[in-house]
């Protein structure tokens, strides 16, 4: 199957079900390259499940059943990709900053090392570049050998971003990356995202509709496992085409 | 009716006394054995062969024998137990067979040690024709401590947060890489602690080595894994009940050496654990 270059990820009739519940129903949409797609919706609407299908982290949940197709650059990620390889191309940032309890440097080069890169010099270059791209290099250049656990929450989250960038991904997924952060740290993360979209395709799940409006080029609204509406952010927030979207963004529920 | 404050006090005192009571037997055992055995400890006692039908001389071959047996037991049980624990914790699904395996491990832990001795006699000494040898004794002890190692390794693996695995997988690591680099290093202290506790138990048991390796009186060192050896717990049993007119000092001295070895191992386990705990912060 061929997708046009204006489509980075094509999602067709995606469904996810667990033995006792349905998490996603018949989601179909395209994600464009070098843009930020924001995903909003109340709790339990399937946003995080949706993200986890995009890099097959959903495979870890033993009971989950995935149906439909997801094409990354025209290739089906459930049939034509090794999960490990896919996850290098589609990185994810979790809601809580989750640095491994090892040094800052080892956190950043965790992915490259697993790909078999041993050369110290090369690892050093990857680490510096990734930390620069995550706006963390200046704060970290003298602290590379410290334990990552000692960093502040905001620094930890940017370290997690650097760690993901070190994989050399095409797509970066953010799962409510600022939900545990203060406004200043949140600002830094958003600033980093705006810069990153010049080179990467970003998908941002957020509970904060204002954040979605600030950074998203497009915004999708999920409700009870269904994609209700996806539209240019300005349009979705000013003139939503579905009444339920309107109700949600104007705060009548959720 | 007592006022809540008084009953609070009484409860506190009762709980504290119960805890204190645990310390008394431990302390007494150590004090009595040191008091009666310290006099026997000397360089000769630790490094010489026994003489005059074990009524004089040292216990060197028993120390060496116990060391070999314990070493062999770990070499056998640690890899096997660790691999089994990794399978059970990281790979196995909740199927009927896996539930039976888990049940078997729990039951293995409850088998009396003398039964392990008979099992070792039948399987290693008899069926495999290893004879009464270090090999048979080590394998028997290894089987006995397997459940300890598996259980403690599983606990250690399960205590590593699930998020570490998710993070590692999300960074493009395979499942095996994830276990090797994101799980095992953080489970290692727990695994080591469990192993050393198992070793302590292996060093102190008499019944499993009774039919499989232990020599009554063998005042020389073993030359291969197929030799018999003396071992401290069995030696203690022999000089306490089977040989008349042994100076009690020698008995208590032997007990003291055995106790010191086991306590030393436990101490090492505690030190390893606290060393790693001071580094881990999650």
Give a structural overview.
The complex is a heterodimer of chains A (254) and B (282). Chain A is α/β, with parallel strands linked by helices and 254 residues long. Chain A is built from eleven helices and ten strands. Chain A has helices at 47-54, 83-89, 104-108, 110-114, 120-133, 137-140, 153-165, 183-196, 209-215, 233-238, 243-249; strands at 9-18, 21-31, 36-40, 65-72, 75-76, 90-93, 171-175, 201-205, 218-223, 226-232. In chain A, the strands form two sheets. In chain A, strands 6-7-8-3-9-10 form a six-stranded mixed sheet, with helices on both faces. A four-stranded antiparallel sheet of chain A has the order 2-1-4-5, with helices on one face. The N and C termini of chain A lie far apart (38 Å). The mean pLDDT of chain B is 87. Chain B is an all-alpha fold. Chain B is built from eleven helices and two strands. In chain B, helix 3 (60-91) runs antiparallel to helix 8 and helix 4 (96-110) crosses helix 6 (134-159). Chain B has one domain: Orthogonal Bundle (MetI-like fold), CATH 1.10.3720. Chain B has helices at 4-37, 43-47, 60-91, 96-110, 113-127, 134-159, 162-170, 175-204, 207-210, 232-242, 248-279, and strands spanning 50-51, 56-57. The A-B interface holds A 55, 57, 60, 62, 83-85, 87-88, 91-92, 94, 96, 98, 100-101, 110-111, 113-115, 147, 149, 163-164, 167 and B 93, 163-174, 177, 181-182, 186, 279-282.
Topology:
The complex is a heterodimer of chains A (254) and B (282).
Chain A lengths: L8 E10 L2 E11 L4 E5 L6 H8 L10 E8 L2 E2 L6 H7 E4 L10 H5 L1 H5 L5 H14 L3 H4 L12 H13 L5 E5 L7 H14 L4 E5 L3 H7 L2 E6 L2 E7 H6 L4 H7 L5
Parallel strand pairs in A: 3-8, 3-9, 6-7, 7-8
Antiparallel strand pairs in A: 1-2, 1-4, 4-5, 9-10
Helix pairs in contact in A: 5-7, 7-8
Chain B lengths: L3 H34 L5 H5 L2 E2 L4 E2 L2 H32 L4 H15 L2 H15 L6 H26 L2 H9 L4 H30 L2 H4 L21 H11 L5 H32 L3
Antiparallel strand pairs in B: 1-2
Helix pairs in contact in B: 1-11, 3-6, 3-8, 4-6, 5-6, 6-8, 7-8, 8-11, 10-11
């Amino acid at each position: 199957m061929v997708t046009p270059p204006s489509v980075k990820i094509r999602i067709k009739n995606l469904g996810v079900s667990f033995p006792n519940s349905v998490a996603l129903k018949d989601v179909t949409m395209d994600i464009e390259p070098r843009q930020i797609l924001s995903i909003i919706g109340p709790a339990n609407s399937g946003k995080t499940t949706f993200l986890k299908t995009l890099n097959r982290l959903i495979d870890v949940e033993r009971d989950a059943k995935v149906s439909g197709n997801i094409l990354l650059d025209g290739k089906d990620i459930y049939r034509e990709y090794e999960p490990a390889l896919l996850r290098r191309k589609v990185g994810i940032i979790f809601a809580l900053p989750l640095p491994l309890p090892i040094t800052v440097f080892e956190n950043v080069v965790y992915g490259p090392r697993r790909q078999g890169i041993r050369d110290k010099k090369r690892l050093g270059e990857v680490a510096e570049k990734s930390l620069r791209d995550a706006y963390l290099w200046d704060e970290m250049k003298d602290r590379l050998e410290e334990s990552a656990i000692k960093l502040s929450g905001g620094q930890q989250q940017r370290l997690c971003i650097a760690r993901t960038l070190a994989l050399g991904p095409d797509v970066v997924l953010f799962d409510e990356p600022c939900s545990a952060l203060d406004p200043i740290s949140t600002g830094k993360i958003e600033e980093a995202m705006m810069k990153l979209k010049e080179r990467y395709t970003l998908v941002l799940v957020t509970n904060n509709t204002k954040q979605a409006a600030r950074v998203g080029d497009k915004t999708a609204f999920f409700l009870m496992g269904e994609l209700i509406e996806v539209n240019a952010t300005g349009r979705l927030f000013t003139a939503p085409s579905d009444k339920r979207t309107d109700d949600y963004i104007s705060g009548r529920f959720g | 009716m007592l006022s809540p404050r008084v009953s609070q006090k009484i409860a506190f005192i009762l709980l504290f006394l119960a805890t204190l009571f645990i310390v008394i037997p431990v302390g007494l055992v150590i004090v009595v054995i040191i008091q009666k055995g310290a006099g026997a400890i000397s360089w000769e006692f630790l490094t010489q062969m026994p003489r005059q039908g074990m009524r004089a001389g040292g216990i060197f071959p028993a120390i060496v024998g116990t060391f070999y047996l314990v070493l062999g037991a770990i070499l056998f049980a640690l890899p096997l137990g660790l691999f089994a624990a990794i399978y059970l914790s990281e790979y196995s699904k909740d199927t009927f067979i896996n539930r039976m395996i888990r049940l078997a491990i729990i039951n293995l832990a409850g088998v009396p040690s003398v039964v392990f001795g008979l099992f070792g006699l039948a399987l290693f000494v008899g069926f495999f024709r290893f004879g009464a040898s270090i090999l048979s004794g080590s394998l028997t002890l290894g089987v006995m401590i397997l459940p300890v190692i598996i259980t403690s390794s599983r606990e250690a693996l399960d205590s590593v947060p699930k998020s570490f695995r998710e993070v590692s997988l999300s960074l493009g690591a395979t499942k095996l890489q994830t276990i090797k680099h994101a799980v095992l290093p953080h489970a290692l202290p727990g695994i080591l602690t469990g192993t050393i506790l198992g070793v302590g138990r292996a060093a102190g048991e008499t019944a499993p080595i009774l039919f499989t390796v232990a020599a009554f009186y063998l005042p020389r060192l073993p030359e291969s894994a197929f030799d018999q050896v003396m071992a401290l717990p069995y030696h203690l049993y022999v000089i306490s009940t089977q040989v008349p007119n042994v100076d009690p000092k020698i008995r208590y001295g032997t007990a003291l050496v055995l106790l010191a070895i086991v306590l030393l191992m436990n101490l090492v386990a505690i030190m390893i654990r606290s060393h790693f705990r001071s580094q881990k912060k999650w």
